[in-house]
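Project outcomes to date are best conveyed with an example. Our students and postdoctoral researchers have been running inverse folding experiments weekly, and each run begins with a structure described purely in tokens. The record below, which covers 84 residues, was selected by the lab manager from last quarter's runs and is presented without edits.
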């Protein structure tokens, strides 16, 4: 169940932004976070950890995008429940 919740949160995060609304760095971090949610049959992505990526994205967005920051905080909590 937490895995499905995490997938839903990532979708919500992407829906918070229209194309061009994020900086290239924020878009890179969102894409990197999504890569961490790969199928278990795929090889694991390289560091940084999904939690490190989410924290970097949170720092980047929390002042200008409080709603997206709230979604990222929930992602971080869910990653913790999944042991990631």
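After processing, the design step wrote out the following sequence:
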């Amino acid at each position: 169940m937490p895995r499905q919740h995490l997938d839903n949160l990532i979708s919500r995060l992407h829906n918070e932004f229209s194309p061009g609304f994020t900086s290239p760095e924020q878009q890179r971090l969102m894409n990197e976070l999504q890569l961490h949610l790969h199928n278990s049959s795929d090889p694991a992505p390289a560091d940084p950890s999904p939690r490190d990526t989410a924290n970097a994205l949170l720092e980047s967005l929390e002042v200008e995008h409080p709603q997206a920051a709230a979604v990222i905080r929930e992602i971080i909590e869910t990653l913790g429940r999944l042991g990631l």
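The first helix runs from residue 2 to 15. The chain is about 65% helix and 0% strand. The training component of this project remains on track.
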